[in-house]
Amino acid sequence: MTSNGLRCFVVATIFLSACGVKSDPSEGAKSPLGKGTTAKDFTTKDVDGQTFRLSDHVGKSVILIDFWATWCEPCLAEFPHLQTLYDQNKSKGFIVVAVSMDGPDSIAMVPAFVKRNGLTFPVVLDEDSRIASIYNPRKSAPLSVLIDRAGHIVVVREGYNPGDDELIAADVRRVLDAVE
Which has the least CB within 10 A, 55, 94, 100, 165? Predict the structure, then answer.
């Protein structure tokens, strides 16, 4: 294999999995807060400088927390699907909360990214990694945590591959349709 071919293979492999540690998405990620655990509250700022509290949404909404970064290609590939999922289900009590794990070198790019991509769900900043330390200590990207209306973690998915959007959508529908 030529060096150019090897480089393309490596880039494609990274693009089709995750920017962090990869696990089988059907099994969910290894997380300190596993299925059935009560979601822990956090307060942070969104890209507009407004305060966001997870507890403001528990009891009212099914919540998908999605950890991402501007430098993560699979994260960027996932965003159009998350926006569609949000648009289709927000009237049913569904919210996506995108938690940017960008650090000092790239955090300034987040607001422009949100605007350029027309993201209408909350995008919050985790500059000090406080939120990641609760839900995503390995800092895997992307990593999605689905929380039911009662505030319990239902599914944790790590990584993103084409077609995973269908699995995430099925999880969301199942939780939205569940009687709690």
Answer: 55
Residue with tokens 């995008």: 123
- What is the CATH classification number for the domain harbouring 124? 3.40.30.10
Between helix 73-89 and helix 164-177 the angle, nearest 10°, is: 30
Residue 40's CB: how many other CB atoms inside 10 A? 14
What does the alpha-carbon distance between residue 10 and residue 97 come to, in Å, rounded to a whole number?
30
Alpha carbon separation from 138 to 29, 128, 154 (Å, rounded): 10, 14, 19
The domain total for the chain is: 1
pLDDT digits (tens, 9 = 90+) for 125-174: 999 999 999 999 999 999 999 999 999 999 999 999 999 999 999 999 99
Phi, psi of 120 (to 5 degrees): -110, -5
Closest CA to 97 of 127, 56, 36, 59: 56
Vertex 94: Cα angle to 91 and 96 (nearest 5):
125
Q: For residue 134, what is the enclosing H or E element?
A: helix 130-135
Q: Could you tell me the pTM of the whole model?
A: 0.83
**Could you tell me the end-to-end alpha-carbon distance of the chain, in angstroms, rounded to an integer?**
55
The per-residue pLDDT for range 65-106, each reduced to its tens digit, is 999 999 999 999 999 999 999 999 999 999 999 999 999 999
